[in-house]
Amino acid sequence: MSNSHLLMKAGFITSPAQNGVGRYVCQLQRVVLKFCKNNGSSRGVRDFIESDLVNFAKDHPGVVVYLKPRRHRGPVIVAEYLNGEKQHVYCRNFTSEVVSKWLTLLKNQQGNHEGMRLRKMWHTDHPSIQGPWTPYTFREPSLNLAEFPNDKLSSPASLEPSATDRLIEAFKKQQLKELE
């Protein structure tokens, strides 16, 4: 095990657990669009502000949008989440559509947890090495090599009776006993 985790900050995810089970709570709190009014690399952000920003604000009333013009700087989108994390996206020479897609992506995320060693509420000295269970875990191994359709596997004689067939047989036996 490496010691690279010693330099990372450790913490718990502070966003609501199972977000979307009861009701969805958008984790994006505020968006700051920083752009230059004259610089050519900010053209896509300026086009987005002129054409699509009002629609974005109407569609997402829980997200506060700030515009911050600044001179001779590249365009940046700063997203701030409910858990206090900030995420910066440098938007140099982006088109209006790409800016819109980035805002949608930032809105759908839970916050930036990269560079954080996530801690758990439980601990075990003997973790499982078996791996996850799948529906194919306990299947018959001969099915792995069989080619379908297979007459041997699909013949009624090779199949054991189902629970319904067993109940029907038990019911018929009970009726025969009552008639005797």
From TrEMBL:
<dbReference type="InterPro" id="IPR036249">
    <property type="entry name" value="Thioredoxin-like_sf"/>
</dbReference>
<comment type="similarity">
    <text>Belongs to the mitochondrion-specific ribosomal protein mL43 family.</text>
</comment>
<keyword id="KW-0689">Ribosomal protein</keyword>
<keyword id="KW-0496">Mitochondrion</keyword>
<dbReference type="Pfam" id="PF05047">
    <property type="entry name" value="L51_S25_CI-B8"/>
</dbReference>
<feature type="domain" description="Ribosomal protein/NADH dehydrogenase">
    <location>
        <begin position="37"/>
        <end position="110"/>
    </location>
</feature>
<keyword id="KW-0687">Ribonucleoprotein</keyword>
<dbReference type="InterPro" id="IPR039927">
    <property type="entry name" value="Ribosomal_mL43"/>
</dbReference>
<dbReference type="GO" id="GO:0005840">
    <property type="term" value="C:ribosome"/>
</dbReference>
<dbReference type="InterPro" id="IPR007741">
    <property type="entry name" value="Ribosomal_mL43/mS25/NADH_DH"/>
</dbReference>
<protein>
    <recommendedName>
        <fullName>Large ribosomal subunit protein mL43</fullName>
    </recommendedName>
</protein>
